[in-house]
Amino acid sequence: MGRYCQLVMGPAGSGKSTYCQTIMQHCEAAKRRVHxxxxxxxxxxxxxxxxxxxxxxITLEDVMDELGYGPNGGLVYCFEFLxxxxxxxxxxxxDYEDDYLILDCPGQIExxxxxxxxRQIAQQLQLWNFQVVGIYCLxxxxxxxxxxxxxxxxxxxxxxxxxxxxxxxxMTKMDLVSDDVKDNMDRYFDPDPLLLADDAxxxxxxxxxxxxxxxxNLIDEFSMVSFLPLNVKDEDSVAYxxxxxxxxxxxxxxxxxxxxxxEIEDADYE
Length: 270
Ligand SMILES: Nc1nc2c(ncn2[C@@H]2O[C@H](COP(=O)(O)OP(=O)(O)OP(=O)(O)O)[C@@H](O)[C@H]2O)c(=O)[nH]1
Ligand SMILES: [Mg+2]
Known about the structure:
disordered C terminus, GPN-loop GTPase 3, seven-stranded parallel beta sheet, Gpn3, Rossmann fold, hydrolase
């Protein structure tokens, strides 16, 4: 056995907490032991209460009230405070030897993309012998507009290169995708540069053609982005993502060999 965790990241409102709750529920039904860790000092309520909660150390509300920070500066302050008090986290995690943790992170993407805080947390978790996989959530509305999709892909890539841990992109809220987009979804999960550039050219002025082509090619050449679709209402879709995450951190290897399931092909996005 060992220590395993998923670091669940993504922009504000992208469905991180819902993803975490869905995994908790799925594992409970499967009688599999996982624990929720809340790393969002501004979180409000959880259906599955977290086993470890940053709000026991510091809350955004207190920081804003007492130090007069705004929400974004306050959040960075909370994480700097956490970094100075990593022994608190170590002690909290001490109870979870041989366990699987789901870490629900805040939605301020600067934590993943341009300040090294999440990177330091991921490194520290590895030093404490956790196998860590990053789960980057992007919501399905991003595939309804190619320019938004490019922005989402860039943020996911930035997080991936910043953290340097096994990384899985999850396209959340698939239940909200409209029928006409659903018919063309594959190009967004496993992007085809020509189709992407065509789409982008339709919604932008001519002078952006070269830029659209360059971004689409970059996405393709580095094979850096592919997405696993998540429909929280479809158990197969949840199981599929969990099996990929487990595989990325080799969870369960010593009990039984695990490969990602292929059940998604039959999964229903409705
Ligand atoms: N229809 C649908 N709504 C969803 C899904 N996932 C999340 N939502 C909704 O999207 C909103 C944001 O979801 P959260 O799970 O709180 O997102 P988050 O990324 O944790 O948000 P922050 O922590 O504030 O950054 C909520 O109103 C959810 O009910 C989904 O799969 N389907
Ligand atoms: Mg949340």
